[in-house]
Write a structure and sequence with these properties.
The protein is built from 1 helix and 27 strands. With 374 residues, the chain is mainly β. It has 2 domains: 242 residues, no CATH class; 105 residues, Immunoglobulins (Immunoglobulin-like, Sandwich), CATH 2.60.40.10. A hairpin with an 8-residue loop joins strand 7 and strand 8. The chain is elongated and about 90 Å long. It starts with a helix and ends with a strand.
Length: 374
């Protein structure tokens, strides 16, 4: 009986070897002319859901034909007219393939990250709208291009996916825009605590995906009509991110689409950083009292285009309300009152308004300023 049991286990192991070999031998790219492996149709999925966080960064476009794809969806076309041949790059978990691309943060306060969105597809037969077949995404953030930099957060094993859905885009040929075999899925990942805040600088992401179909997952490149070189993406083949090479299609390096969501640290809040007043005699006893109000989002970072509301209080206690917009370069809004009165003039900020920003008077260096007219 023990011999029979051992024989049955051996037969089961041998039977799985071809399946494992097939997974490990996934090619590094899917090119024009490749055929989709046979398999069951994927049922229809839910329509794409909006991401609630603010978009901080978009690494590049994918849509070449808005509304030109299957059932009126958007299409991302391989430009065979430019001798391009690549549907997508292999970044399969089981094959040890990975992709990488970089981004830069210029905002002085850095970014507070909420989520990152990656794109992938698996070639197959789908319902409409197609259901996502992506089951896992792992990623790392580096302080320089791999392998030369250091990993700040993440690893090449932990599944960080929090949501996945169809992007509304199909990856197709420019000669077959309505093909529906390659719906591009957008997968949202949560942020590693060590990367919840990133200071200004240059960073690189590297990632890989897993899915429920035999094909891929494949990472579509950034695609721009009439353009062959679209970025400086990298690919690691079979060694899970140890060695890297340029991600190429027909001699042209490609970028990889991804999106970062979150907020600008210290940059989505406005405050008064300076008020200065001066008196200009106008003759015959008349004076012009002028004020300049500076608005900032961080120390040394002034913000143009903000509407500043302020009240003058004249020596006779009359209140004059005014508003003006901060100028490019100086971040200052100008205010002025004319008159014959002498005594103390006061200018106080009552509100600051700019779309997408919040005025926080608690951060004001000063809210009011005064000047005396002889």
């Amino acid at each position: 009986m023990k011999k029979l049991f051992s024989l049955l286990i051996l037969v089961a192991i041998v039977a799985t070897l071809p399946m494992l070999a097939t997974a490990k031998q996934q090619p590094a790219v899917e090119v024009v002319g490749d055929t989709a492996p046979a398999g069951p149709a994927v049922p229809a999925g839910k329509a794409p859901q909006p991401i609630p966080e603010a978009l901080l960064y978009d690494n590049g476009p994918m849509i070449t034909h808005p509304g030109g794809g299957f059932n009126g969806a958007d299409a991302s076309a391989v430009q065979t007219a430019l001798a391009m041949t690549l549907y997508g790059f292999g970044h399969q978990l089981l094959a040890g393939n990975r992709m990488a691309d970089g981004f830069a943060i210029a905002d002085p306060g850095g970014w507070d990250l909420d989520s990152i969105q990656f794109f992938a597809y698996q070639t197959g037969t789908y319902g409409f709208p197609p259901a996502s077949t992506i089951t896992a995404v792992n990623y790392r953030i580096w302080d320089a291009a791999p392998p030369g930099g250091s990993v700040i957060c993440g690893d090449n094993t932990t599944n960080m996916i929090s949501a996945t859905t169809w992007s509304g885009i199909y990856r197709v040929l420019d000669t077959g825009l309505t093909n529906s075999q390659r719906p591009m899925m957008e997968s949202t990942v949560s942020i590693w605590p060590a990367c919840a805040h990133l200071d200004p600088g240059t960073y690189w992401l590297d990632w890989q995906s897993d899915g429920s179909l035999a094909s891929g997952p494949w990472a579509p490149p950034i695609t721009i009509l009439g353009q062959t070189v679209t970025g400086d993406g990298l690919q690691s083949v079979t060694d899970n991110g140890v060695t890297w090479a340029a991600a190429m299609d027909t001699g042209a390096q490609q970028g990889l689409p991804f999106r970062i969501f979150g907020t600008i640290a210290g940059g989505n809040t406005l405050y008064v950083s300076d008020i200065h007043l001066r008196v200009a005699p106008r003759g015959f006893g008349k004076y012009a009292v002028r004020g300049q109000i500076e608005i900032s989002s961080a120390p040394g970072v002034v913000e143009p285009g903000a509407t500043v509301f302020a009240d003058w209080t004249l020596p006779d206690t009359t209140v004059v309300s005014q508003s003006n917009i901060t100028r490019a370069g100086s971040g200052e809004a100008a205010f002025k009152v004319n008159g014959y009165q002498t005594g103390t003039f006061q200018l106080c900020v009552t509100d600051v308004v700019k779309a997408g920003w919040t005025y926080d008077p608690n951060q004001n260096v000063e809210t009011c300023d005064t000047i005396s007219v002889p």
